[in-house]
Write the C-alpha cells for this entry.
Amino acid sequence: MERIVEQTLLYDFYGELLTEHQKHIYEAVVFDDMSYSEIAEEQGISRQGVFDLIKRCDNILKGYEDKLHLVERFLSDRQKAAKIRELAGKLDEAQENELVGAIISLAEDIAADH
C-alpha cells in the first residue's frame, strides 16, 4: 500500500487515539503536506523532534492496526462489495442461479466478518 494512503487510512481509523498535539503535527505532515522544518518553526521544536513524533505516531497507529485489523477488514469488505457489484452487473436469466449463489455467498462472507 502506498505510504500516504496507508497513513491516511490508519489515521482515519485510529487518529482519535492520538493526543491533540500528535494529531495536530501528524495532520500537518500527512494532510497539509508541510515540511518538518515548517512545522518545527511553527511549533518551536527541532526538525528532529517533528521527525521523531511522526515516526512515533506511525508506530502507534500501526500497533493499533496490528491488534484490531480494522483497516484490513475495511479493505477486504471493499473488495467483496466490488465483486458483488461486478457479479450483479453480469446477471442475466441464463446465469441467474449461479450468480445469485455467488452473490449470496459473498454477502454472507461480509456479514460473517462482523
Notes: The radius of gyration is 20 Å.
